[in-house]
Amino acid sequence: MIKIYGILKSRAVRPVWTAEELGIPYELVPMHYAGDEVKSAAYLALNPNGQVPTLVDGDLVLFESLAIDLYLAKQHRAFGLWGADDHEEARIFQWTLWAATEAEPLARQWFRYTSFLPQESRIPALAAAALEGLRARFAVLDHALRDADYLVGNRFTVADLNVAAVLQRFVQLGGADYPNALAWHRRCFERPAAQRVFGERG
């Protein structure tokens, strides 16, 4: 059985969602991203970044949530989250990297300066700048979904899971102005696996 280190109120929710979609057994090892345990020697031996999540699958130890999702989807490709051919696989990598490089830095900037930091440390101008930057990214996403329900092969894949998980606060980030992307986001989070995971997350 695979082990996923982290808590659901962290990026560990992403590989947990993937495991639920795939129907594979897993153990969630509770570890808070801000707790002392992530700085312990035992945990740093698994993840030298001192962050969550970390996946342990036999001899494989893997960090970075989106990479873990890709690995699990490919390992269990019969369940349909992976690409059907090289072109679909390339699109999965494209959208996952887009999520990591184009969308997540701005989404995190907004969250940091509106919710994560103590009130006295928040900078509204940086939160507003993040929202403005996300408008161009959401336009790209909305255009990609103009004639399709999903990002790759017009079926739900790990590409959708990764992008949707990064943009879980899509409406708060201004996503309501992008109807194609908004409908897609709702489809992703209406899936039974997402409902189970995010329902437990609270």
Automatic annotation (TrEMBL):
The keyword Electron transport does not apply. Residues 85-202 form the GST C-terminal domain. Residues 1-80 form the GST N-terminal domain. Keywords: Transferase. One of its GO terms (molecular function) is transferase activity. InterPro entries: Glutathione-S-Trfase_C-like, Glutathione-S-Trfase_C_sf, Glutathione_S-Trfase, Glutathione_S-Trfase_N, GST_C, Thioredoxin-like_sf. Belongs to the GST superfamily. PANTHER family: GLUTATHIONE S-TRANSFERASE GSTA, GLUTATHIONE S-TRANSFERASE-RELATED. This is Glutathione S-transferase. It comes from Paraburkholderia tropica.
